[in-house]
Amino acid sequence: MKLNLIPKPNKLEELGGVRNLNDGELTLRRDETIPAEGYRLMLTADVALLEFSTDAGAFYGKQTLRQLRREDGTVPLVKIEDAPEFAWRGFMIDSSRHIQTLDEIKAFIEAAASFKCNVFHWHFCDDPGWRMESERYPLLNSVGSWRDGWGFNNPNPERYGGYFTKAQIRDLVQFCADRFITVVPEFDIPGHSSAVIKSYPWLSCTEEEVDVTTNAGVFSNVLCAGKDETFAFCEGVLEEIMELFPGKYIHIGGDEVPKDHWKACPKCQARIKAEGLKDAEELQGYFTKRIAAFLRSHGKTPIGWNEVLDAGMLPQDVVAAKWHDRRNLCDPFANAGGRIIMEETSNVYLDYDYRTTPLKKTYSYDLLPDSLTEEGKKNVLGVEAPIWTEWVETFDRMCYMCFPRLAAMAEVGWTKRERKDYEDFKRRIEAHRDALAALGVKMAPQSDWDPA
Ligand code: ACM
Ligand code: ZN
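Above: inputs. Below: predicted complex with zinc ion.
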């Protein structure tokens, strides 16, 4: 019987035959020579041994063992020596545009953890709604968490919204920690801020009322970069975020920031002049640098979408997420020592339908393109797949879009290129359908994976 391991281990020897393995029969042993997140699993007639250097490695070894176990309780005899190619194997959930329940998010995370994903990037604020409880800025919840309708562009007229309480968020962060998943919270600033500006209109350049939008798109209302009050607000929110999310990384967005209001705003123009900046683009560079410095002073590492590189002013400790790099700045940034996460629309935007991004295209994503030097390749932290939810209204739809493509991404991040095999992946992932369904995660039917 063939093995169905996902991601495929980097070294695997099948010894032939099977054995029983009862609870308590597996010997666990620490071996400091094993790489972080790596493990060695030996299952012979006489030996059942799992070795690792970190608790994460032990967890991944157990995930492999769980995938090896057959219905009759036996396990095949194998020798596995395994460790990930890339340190970052992430998924992003957009809880702003449509909301998931806490249990749905946990089910999704359980599925992602089973494929050894280790980063949950939580996009919990955007133009269509704010989803994190804030005690310092309560209007973010009483105002910014609600909009007039669900669905987009032509919404159903019911009031729609809600947010995650701090207790729920702490519970979720612990749930992730138990699965060796780091949660990376995203405070998407200074654009994508309609919900924030609806709550506190004085944060924008015009101070005019806006709606928490029910339209998909990019909006010209952005946070005013000329006012010190804007920075005080952002730092206050970030302090609340840092209390909830203990991880090293904080995502500060930075994508799709229209500059028309900044160009017309006396305060933004005064800032440009006072700081000796060239234009509104450099004002975004100033904004990013100032927020990054605040996070650095708290021992955090900022991440931004690739637009944070556009002004050419970014300190190297900021990580750039390459999603749609129109100016092609990510690769030179990595070649010069900056770190990047591969997250391109072309291969891993899981809100794109299977016609646009067939499973095979996700599976064949090249994380180390030739545009990277040897030095640049070392600065690729790994891969991440977002699920944006403008058009993803239900959890079943989200699972349909993400599985099996997220499992393909997980193998892209874990398995050495030369060991990948698409036909074999398709066979293996199909064997996971029932286990995913038992979690409440319904995978797309095979007939939809690679449309003609
Ligand atoms: C993005 O898709 N706006 C990062
Ligand atoms: Zn302004």
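The chain has two domains: 12-82, 88-417.
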